[in-house]
Write a structure and sequence with these properties.
About 25% of the residues lie in helices and about 25% in strands. By secondary structure, it is of the alpha+beta class. It is an enzyme of class 2 (transferase).
């Protein structure tokens, strides 16, 4: 319930709705709350951690004030545009504060926080941060903005308060390091209940670790939204399957990344008339080339996958029909061809299979591609890849050889038109100049949308990549 703060101020509740997280995503799973009802929050403070079909992200609030209501329990699915959190804001009752003045107060508050080692509540006047999170922005822009008077309204004669220097309250949570804050969230430790051992009561990492050891088991908190039920996917003892008569060991809801993968695969199989071609290639020369480079410069030698990625990009420039997408139009379909290549690659993570995309891969060398492969793989496995990192591909490279398999007819990553699979490189008997030798052999498999090209184009592309693998020196000289 809103209550009066003083004769000059009053509170008003504002509900922040789950923003559009980009790339057409319509929902997100609430992983956990980072605040509780009654907490004081600042502009841009993360309030919830949500998992979309693409990534796990922290959602910051564009409002400052006191948390009045949390909409949803951890594990719930929230639609984009649905209420996420309600904040009770303190608003000025005597004058209208311009955005530029609000931003000035906010900047001074953050500077004060850095000096004092505390995170103060955001200034009452701040209604937006100007920052952007994956497709949505809180109000605010360049400094010096003006507030337009409503049509027909008389100009206000009340003076506008000068931006005041904000001093953090004595009971503010005294912590500066984002690492300490994240550690506290991971250990389910409430910073407000910790006495810091650092200068002026600053909360240090050791304080959080000590509190985490003595606190209740992770996942059980005193706040209603933090109380967890039985482990997800575990059923009650004795439950039997009616069809087989066997005991059910567990039930795992299909959601998050697994749900997104399932939906994409079903759509791909349903909509795309795919065909598959494959070829074995002698990769001995490529392996020898990389070994030679590694002996001379071990610190910056591209991986074998990076070399193959470079061959793929060159092949797509020669056979652009595979770097396309089918789009529905009012009177049928059309093939959209791209000027450039965003090369996606399959990466296995603890959350499931994701496909980061290397933007403008056609502009990168093998070393540049290797750097991006490593960077995006690390982000994906740490759960830090953004939706922008995991979308926008125009062609996918799938290295299933890391799982110890030779070949696979992969499913096309909808709405792309093709995917190239790379098997493991193994020693196999191979005929060279009429003589049987042991060579390093790899199987390349191309699955393509038969609507965008015929077998001749698909075969030509696959043969180009295979020839590059077999004779890398000649191809690389032209790239």
């Amino acid at each position: 319930m809103a209550t009066a703060v003083s004769a000059q101020n009053s509170t008003a509740q504002r509900t922040f709705r789950l923003p559009d997280l980009g790339e057409g995503l319509t929902e997100a799973e609430l992983v956990r709350w980072l605040v509780a009802a009654g907490d004081t929050v600042a502009v841009d403070q993360p309030v919830a951690e949500v998992e979309t079909a693409k990534a796990v992200v922290e959602v910051p609030t564009p409002y400052a004030g006191t948390v009045a209501e949390l909409h949803g329990e951890p594990g719930a699915t929230i639609d984009v545009g649905a209420p996420l959190i309600t904040i009770a804001e303190v608003t000025s009752g005597g004058a209208e504060v311009t955005p530029s003045e609000a931003r000035a107060v906010a900047r001074e508050a953050y500077r004060e926080e850095e000096r004092a080692g505390a995170r103060p509540p955001a200034p009452a006047e701040a209604s937006g941060s100007g920052n952007v999170l994956i497709g949505y922005g809180t109000p605010g822009g360049a400094a010096g903005g003006r507030t337009r008077r409503r049509k027909g309204a008389a100009p206000s004669s009340a003076p506008v308060a000068e931006p005041a220097r904000t001093t953090p309250p004595a009971d503010a949570v005294r912590v500066v390091s984002p690492l300490v804050r994240r550690l506290a969230r991971d250990l389910n430790v409430q910073l407000a209940r910790i006495s810091g051992s650092g200068p002026d009561g600053l909360i240090m990492r050791r304080d959080v670790e000590s509190a985490g050891v003595t606190s209740a088991p992770q996942g059980v908190t005193s706040a209603p939204q933090g109380v967890t039920s039985a482990p997800q996917g575990v059923t009650s003892a004795g439950e039997a399957d009616a069809r087989t008569g066997l005991a059910i060991a567990s039930r795992t809801p299909v959601k998050g990344v697994r749900k997104a993968v399932a939906q994409a695969m079903v759509r791909s199989r349903t909509e795309i008339p795919e065909a598959t071609v494959w070829v074995d290639a002698d990769a001995t020369a490529l392996v020898d080339l990389r070994h030679g480079l590694k002996r001379r410069d071990p610190g910056s030698t591209p991986s074998l996958l990076a070399f193959i990625a470079r061959f793929v990009v060159a092949g797509l420039q020669k056979f652009p029909e595979l770097n396309t997408r089918i789009e529905e139009t009012g009177d049928g379909q059309e093939i959209v061809q791209f000027d450039g290549v965003n090369l996606g690659f399959a990466a296995q993570t603890d959350r499931g299979l994701v496909v980061p995309a290397i933007r403008n891969a056609n502009t990168l060398s093998a070393r540049g591609l290797d750097s991006e492969l490593r960077r995006l793989t690390a982000l994906a496995r740490e759960g830090k890849a953004s939706p922008a990192d995991l979308t926008g591909g125009t062609f996918t490279l799938n290295n299933y050889g890391v799982f110890g398999v030779d070949g696979s007819a992969a499913i096309i990553n909808h709405p792309e038109a093709a995917i190239l699979g790379v098997g493991r490189i193994i020693d196999r008997p191979w005929v060279v100049d009429g003589q049987l030798q042991v060579r390093k052999v790899v199987q390349l498999t191309l699955t393509f949308d038969h609507r965008v090209c015929d077998g001749g184009t698909a075969g030509g592309f696959l043969r180009f990549v295979a020839d590059a693998v077999e004779q890398p020196g000649g191809i690389l000289a032209d790239l």
